[in-house]
Design goal:
Length: 116
């Protein structure tokens, strides 16, 4: 069907689809103080609009809204039309608590009772 449409109409439809993806994006990649919306994310990487992001590389943080989700090491993979695809070299889930260097016992106290 798209072959029957004029080129200008096809370009406008593609631009509208890109805008809808960008508005719908809830995840963003943060590099320093800059943030770029992630259009699509998979287990092996993610895509960002070419006009939004420069060629990213290195350690980045991935947020979903205000929540820190991942810290990842990325490399630019390939251009796919108007989006740039990035692959993960390492993708680590962000932890909300600090790691402990000891094993928590099963019979540890549940609380502290004070004497009155």
């Amino acid at each position: 069907m798209s072959s029957f449409l004029p080129k200008s109409v096809r370009e406008e439809l593609a631009a509208a689809q890109r805008l809808a993806l960008r508005r719908k994006a809830t995840r963003a990649v943060h590099v320093g103080d800059d943030a770029y919306p992630i259009l699509k994310m998979t287990q092996t990487g993610f895509t960002v609009a070419i006009e939004d992001a420069p060629r990213l590389r290195g350690l980045v943080d991935i947020y979903e809204g205000a929540r820190h989700m991942y810290q990842a090491l990325i490399v630019a993979s390939e251009e796919e039309g108007d989006v740039m695809r990035y692959d993960f070299k390492r993708n680590t889930a962000a932890a909300t608590t600090a790691p402990v260097d000891f094993e928590a016992g099963l019979n540890r106290p549940a609380g502290l009772l004070t004497s009155t």
